[in-house]
Amino acid sequence: MEQPDRFTQPGHEHLICKLKKSLYGLKQSPRQWYKRFDSYMLQIGYKWCEYDCCVYVKGLHDGSSIFLLLYVNDMLIVAKNMYDVLALKALLSQEFDMKDLGAATKILGTEIHRDRGSRKLWLSQ
Question: How far apart, in whole angstroms, are the C-alpha atoms of residue 92 and residue 87?
Fold first, then answer.
């Protein structure tokens, strides 16, 4: 890394800028983003799934659970009640820049088909 043009001070050419946050494109950026996201999820009461640290789970007041699955910067939120999904989305959007893509139809190459009337879900690759 080098100092920007016209910023170099005589006698201090070897100094570079101190980053206050990760820059997009640096090899450390994904790790820094994950650490920030993970810290926030733990702060709002979620826990890691025992088998995968990119799956967060939280027990809810009605005895059910809400799950957030994270892959790079894509998220899938699953809960019994849509109110709980919307509440989590609201919390996350206060902390992070987010775009809500609606109900998932495909994730990680797997198509998702729902029949809400019969409460069935099909996954196909």
Answer: 9
- Where do runs of H (alpha helix) occur along the chain? 29-43, 82-95
Three-state SS at 65: strand
CA distance 65 to 79: 6
Measured CA to CA, the distance from residue 54 to residue 111 in angstroms comes to 20
Verdict on whether the full-model pTM lies above 0.85: no
**Residue reference for tokens 């899938």:** 76
pLDDT in tens, 88-106: 999 999 999 888 888 889 8
Separation of alpha carbons 46 and 59, rounded Å:
8
Is residue 25 left, alpha or beta, with left meaning phi > 0 and alpha meaning psi from -120 to 50?
A: left
**pLDDT per residue as tens digits for the range 45-95:** 999 998 998 999 999 999 999 999 998 878 999 999 899 999 999 999 999
Residue with tokens 């659970």: 65
Which helix (H) or strand (E) covers residue 58, if one does? Answer: strand 55-59
